[in-house]
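Bit of a strange request maybe. I'm writing a small parser for structure token strings and I need a real example to test against, not something I typed by hand. Could someone generate the tokens for this chain?
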Amino acid sequence: QVQLVESGGGLVQPGGSLRLSCAASGSIFSIQTMGWHRQGPGKQRESVASITRGGTTNYADSVKGRFTISRDNAKNTVDLQMNSLKPEDTAVYYCNADINTSYYLYGTRNYWGQGTQVTVSS
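Reply from user aminoacidic:
Good idea to test on real output. This should exercise your parser:
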């Protein structure tokens, strides 16, 4: 009963910027870590950035200094600001989150969005 929906993808020129957003909805008691993964053509899915409920962030080396992840715990949303985009950033970007769905259940389950396409090209 939990759904993650991404938005904000599109076509952008090298050096440009995009802001991705992800909203979690449904039966949510609490959300622990939220993050973004991506999968380019012919490549494995890789972690891009993550953020804990307390605001601790982690970034892939390839995006450090260019991408910024943020979240709003009250709204159950997570954003990814992408600056200085490169052609190698082209991929489908997926939102994910570790979510506890009930006061009566221990632990979390991992949920994924459907993905949004980001294309960086001239």
